[in-house]
Amino acid sequence: MSEVKLLATARTEFGKGAARRIRRADQVPAVLYGHGEKPVHITLPGHSTMLALKHSNALYSVELDGKKTLAIAKDVQRDPIKGFIEHIDLLEVRKGEKVTVEVNVHVVGESAPGTIHVVETQAVQLEAEATNLPEWVEVSIEGLEDGASVRGGDLVLPEGASYQGDPEDLIIAISTPRASAEDEALEVAIAEEASAQSAASAAADES
Questions:
Q1: Which residues constitute the domain of residue 75?
Q2: Cα distance between residue 132 and residue 158, in whole Å
Q3: Do both 112 and 171 map to the same domain?
Q4: Is the pLDDT of residue 91 over 70?
Q5: pTM summary value
């Protein structure tokens, strides 16, 4: 995806009180670091930053004092109750550089009739070019039969990306729903009770 532009300002106040004042002004405290450089503390515009973070692994063009820096979000801290953004860690990146990121698994298609699929791994670790990070990994389960599976080594990845886990990692499993022993025992008990009630009713009618 294209670069998301964010206009930053230098931050000189620190601490919880300063962070609250920044957020009340519809801004977000952040730190920009990477490549051995000294971390730069900045503030970002609240609304545009919130919209930008809706895209997983977006590439940001952060402009500070006329200088533009490419970066990705490495950590986003949110209020656990209200959900607003408390702080962002931005990692500086360069074109051609590779980074490791977490990417969500996106399932498409339908498995064979009568089967269900279970996503065993919701997100995977990929190494990819910092300026061309995927938002998700698409996995097709179209027509897969009972007992089939999709593993790490089966993932179809964007050009230049590589899976960072074990190729045998289970990503998705296909199965046919089967009743448990308890469910079967319950069904038998219900059937026997219904049969007993029917027999008792018939006996009562004969008498």
A1: 4-93
A2: 9
A3: yes
A4: yes
A5: 0.69
